[in-house]
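Hypothesis: this fold can be encoded by more than one sequence.
Test: take the structure tokens below, design a sequence, compare later.
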């Protein structure tokens, strides 16, 4: 096995993925069918027919951040990604919190939503509508899905990538088929270039809200970079795949947005995108009139497998993040255990599967509304760690920005702009979430989503203090080279 340039040998199987497989993992982690169906309606409620403009501008900070990730990966192709990069740039404390705790917490919360959505759609597709409306039945099936996908992730990247090809292919086939059919239906309006004009939005507030909604729709592509030590040409392919996957997402989302607007318009009644009753599931509302009830089931299947596919990618990426943290002496050594046959972080994979299942059951028992607000707070965490990592790129390369115009642009100007936009989104998100009307819960006049989001960050600060006492060598030296022997488990 060869160690990737600038990386460390952690026992993973190098050369398992090429560019195409990396792009597939990046796209799958975003869950495009699920993301567009639960986000487009809310964007349309805020800005109407200018939803494509919001999708386009919401993509800008994502693309700028992707450039930062690409440059950092070229320099430090480590499966710890944001943890290693932020530690190298800002030190062990910020690295552990912003690069480790925050993305892992956001992913864990998102996994509960993905499992629940996939389970609900699966029961509906099987004709078990009563069970699909029963919280206990949905939670039970969701836990079983987590267990099954944990077993797939444990078998290794090649197996996971093969499954992802099938799931992603179904998603893209269904989305493109829906878009073509919607544009071709009699009575569909001609798409207008004016729908891409951000200057037509009535005020900054509504547009900022729409762009914030769009951050969620693109989130997740960075999961593919956690496989960099298992990718051929690991210092280049993951970064290139990150940029390619985000561009494909933009094209797909714009196509679906134009098609949906052309067919349904922005009316507040019927199938219009301005109807609040359609906002939570646009494809379920538009599928039957566009494709017919029978073929519309393919769209439901696409959303089901989209959520399952993203869940699988979470179970691939997060354990690799904790593997790196453990290998660098920042987590217990158990997380560094690699299966001798499958070459996967076996303990971390099972840990994250179990943690997601326990969190899902716990939140479901507390309240379905509480679970929904927990999912909404993920946006705050996304903007936090994306923004800080983009700034880490600028700070890490600060002494080399004058080496060339390329370095100044790709390691300085673009990441700095992306980081500031992300942190502005973080501040705006926190401001909006403070409102008790934001989400479904509140406490003493403060929005429950705000409390959950800031609570997650506060818990992270407490976790850093605990980790500092448990792993003093890492926090004293900020080492980002392997600090412990890797442990393997037997079959």
């Amino acid at each position: 096995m060869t160690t990737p340039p600038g990386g460390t040998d952690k026992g993973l199987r190098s050369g398992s993925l090429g560019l195409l497989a990396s792009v597939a993992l990046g796209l799958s982690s975003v869950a495009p069918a699920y993301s567009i169906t639960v986000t487009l309606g809310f964007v349309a409620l805020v800005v109407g027919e200018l939803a494509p403009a919001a999708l386009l501008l919401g993509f800008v900070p994502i693309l700028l951040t992707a450039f930062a990730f690409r440059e950092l990966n070229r320099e430090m192709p480590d499966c710890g990604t944001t943890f290693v990069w932020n530690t190298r740039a800002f030190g062990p404390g910020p690295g552990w919190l912003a690069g480790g705790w925050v993305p892992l917490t956001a992913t864990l919360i998102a996994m509960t939503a993905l499992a629940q959505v996939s389970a609900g759609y699966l029961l509906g597709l099987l004709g078990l509508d009563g069970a699909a409306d029963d919280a206990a039945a949905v939670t039970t099936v969701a836990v079983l899905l987590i267990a099954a996908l944990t077993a797939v992730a444990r078998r290794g990247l090649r197996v996971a990538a093969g499954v992802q090809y099938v799931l992603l292919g179904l998603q893209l086939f269904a989305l493109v088929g829906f878009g073509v059919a919607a544009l071709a239906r009699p009575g569909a309006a001609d798409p207008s270039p004016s729908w891409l004009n951000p200057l037509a939005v009535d005020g900054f507030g509504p547009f900022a809200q729409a762009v914030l909604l769009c951050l969620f729709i693109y989130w997740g592509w960075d999961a593919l970079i956690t496989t960099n030590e298992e990718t051929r040409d690991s210092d280049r392919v993951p970064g290139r795949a990150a940029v390619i996957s985000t561009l494909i997402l933009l094209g797909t989302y714009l196509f679906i947005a134009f098609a949906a607007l052309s067919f349904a318009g922005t009316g507040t009644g019927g199938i219009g995108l301005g109807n609040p009753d359609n906002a939570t599931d646009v494809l379920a509302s538009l599928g039957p009139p566009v494709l017919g009830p029978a073929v519309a089931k393919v769209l439901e299947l696409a959303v089901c497998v989209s959520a399952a596919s993203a869940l699988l990618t979470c179970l691939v990426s997060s354990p690799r993040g904790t593997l790196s943290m453990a290998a660098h002496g920042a987590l217990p050594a158990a997380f560094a255990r690699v299966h001798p046959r499958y070459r996967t972080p076996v303990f971390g994979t099972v840990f994250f599967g179990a943690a997601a299942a326990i969190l899902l059951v716990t939140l479901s028992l507390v309240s379905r509304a509480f679970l929904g607000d927990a999912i909404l707070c993920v946006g705050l965490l996304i903007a936090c760690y994306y923004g800080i990592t983009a700034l880490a790129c600028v700070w890490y390369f600060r002494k080399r920005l004058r080496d060339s115009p390329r370095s100044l642009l790709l390691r300085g100007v673009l990441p700095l702009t992306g980081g500031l936009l992300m942190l502005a989104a973080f501040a705006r998100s926190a401001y909006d979430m403070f409102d008790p009307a934001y989400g479904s819960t509140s406490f003493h006049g403060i929005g429950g989503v705000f409390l959950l989001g800031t609570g997650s960050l506060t818990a992270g600060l407490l976790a850093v203090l605990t980790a500092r006492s448990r792993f003093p060598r890492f926090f004293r030296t900020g080492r980002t080279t392997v600090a412990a022997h890797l442990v393997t488990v037997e079959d």
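Residues 98 and 385 are 5 Å apart (CA to CA). Strands lie at 442-443, 446-447.
Hypothesis status: open.
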